[in-house]
Structure formats: C-alpha cells, structure tokens
Write the structure tokens for this entry.
Amino acid sequence: MKSNRSLIRRASLVAATASAALVLAACGGSDEGHDMGSMKSESPSSATTSAQAGAHNKADTAFAQEMIPHHRQAVEMADLAPTRASSTEVKDLATKIKGAQDPEIETMSGWLTAWGEKVPEEMPGMDHSADMPGMMSAQDMEKLEKASGAAFDTMFLEMMVRHHEGAVAMATTEKTEGEYPPAKKLADEIIKGQTAEIEQMNKLLGKD
C-alpha cells in the first residue's frame, strides 16, 4: 500500500510540475509576442515621416520647386568657369557655388518627394528668366558660354550677382511665408551665404 501511495504521489508531482512549466511557457510566449508587437507599434519612422510631410504649406512647395531650377542654372554657370575664366578668384568662387548648391538641390528634391509634390525636371537651355527673379535668359547663357578670359570673368560676376540677388529675394519670401522649419532654415542660410558672395563679387568687379 505504501509503495502504491508513493507512486501516486510521485506521479502527481510530475504532473503538477509539467503543468506549471506549460503555464510559464504560455505566459512567456504571450509576453514575448506582446513585446514584439510593442516594438513594432512604437517604431517612430512612419509617424515622423507623416508628421514631416504634413508640416509644410504652399510657400514651402513653391520655394523648393523654384529654387531647384534656380540653383541648377547657377551650377551650370559655375561649370563653365574652370575652362573659361582667367581669374583664380572667379574659378574658386565658382567651385564654392557649385559645392554649396548641388547638395541643396538634393535636399529640396528630397522634401518634394516626401511631400508627394513634383520635382522639377532637368531641362538644360530652357529659359526660366520670366519665372523667377535673377534667372538668366537663354541668350544670356549663350553669351556666357561663348566668352572667355577677362570678358568671361566680368560677365560671370555681373550675371551671378543678379542671380544671387534673385535667390535672396526668393529665400526672404520663404522665411516670411513658409512653414516647414528645415526650408526656413535653408532660406536663412541662402540669404547669409549668397549675400556674402554678392559682396565678394562686387569687390572683384571694383564696385566696392
């Protein structure tokens, strides 16, 4: 009898232990699933993207869509300097302009893509002079492409001063009317950077 009772007790203990293990495993699996679900739901990327995409207005869109072709023309002008300019100062300035504005084009294109807005197509030679302040006409660009030496230096500086003045005007409008903080910050950087370059170019032209 004692032997039978001992066996029964042992069997009961084994069964109880197995049941407890199953309960713990089930709880652990539930917690793990909950944790994984929490990790997925707490991912900030989608929420942040949607918030950024919505934090802009028409002025921000217009700023990016107009400044992109404006910058592209400045880069096109700067690309002529290494083989056309005679002045080291003009060549260095052109390199600086290209180095600053190429990344800004990429940044603004990224904003427009995130906002679901159209990114302006690259259309070399297209006359945008009537669309944005400071833009050169197709005839202006043809004259610059044909110039060389000291004549190119003077023409480049005079055209780029007007071009920069137009960009500063556009950036000033963005600072006043825009809503998207990164766009307003870029506008401020354009105003400061290009105003300084205008002063530098006027000095090279002997106007200051």
User: Anything to note?
Assistant: The radius of gyration is 32 Å. Helices lie at 2-41, 45-54, 58-84, 88-115, 138-146, 149-177, 181-204.
